[in-house]
Amino acid sequence: MIDAHVHVWGEELLGVPWLQGAAEAPIRQPVGLDSWAAEAGRYPDGEVGNAILVTADETRPGQSLLLARAAA
Prior knowledge:
There is one protein chain. The chain has helices spanning about 35-40, 60-70; strands spanning about 1-5, 50-55. By secondary structure, the protein is α+β, with helices and mostly antiparallel strands. The chain is globular, with a radius of gyration of 13 Å.
């Protein structure tokens, strides 16, 4: 199984406009691939084996940060 929409971001992206609403408050925290792996691991038999990362910050620097995190 592939998780088709995974955002990862650090403290530096908590100010992006789409994260500022009251409805987004529960997710306004750093999210790393380790967080995703822990959630994906809850599925039986390791069903979730891959993910498609989606940028939280559509600027070139934001995309560069995402690519660096993915490479790490």
